[in-house]
Amino acid sequence: MKNRKIPLNLNCGLDLVGEVLYGKWKMRLLWFIKQGHKRPSELQRQIPDASRRVLNVQLKELEDHALISKVVYPVVPPKVEYSLTEFGESLIPVIGAIGEWGDRNEARLRSLILAKPVLDGEA
């Protein structure tokens, strides 16, 4: 188990969801797996800005939280596929709603994000 800088706070549903979905690529991974992109290489092509290592870590966390399942086929080279669990499927409408909200507010969000000043130490 990794050491945490900030102690867990699981006092409400938002805390629980944040703990499970925290990670830049997790919602997109779930969305792409739902769309049929099941192999790690397919997911990497869908999210080229993410490193393979980060995707693997976030896939492992999604698996640990029972949102996806992993099948390793006994072939050479090894073949791995991910699929949503029933629990993971239940998140898809929520992720869809968040995406629609982002689409409806794209211009405003984009201007707010791009207007954010760069703080010392950020690159």
UniProtKB/TrEMBL annotation:
Chain segments annotated as coiled-coil in the UniProt record: none
The reply on keyword Transcription regulation is yes
Q: Does the keyword Transcription regulation apply?
A: yes
PROSITE patterns this protein is in? HTH_HXLR
User: In which domain of life is the source organism classified?
Assistant: Bacteria
Q: Which UniProt keywords apply?
A: DNA-binding, Transcription, Transcription regulation
Q: Which residues form the HTH hxlR-type domain?
A: 12-110
| InterPro entries listed in its UniProt record | HTH_HxlR (IPR002577), WH-like_DNA-bd_sf (IPR036388), WH_DNA-bd_sf (IPR036390)
Pfam families recorded: HxlR
Name assigned to this protein: Winged helix-turn-helix transcriptional regulator
This protein's species is: Chryseolinea lacunae
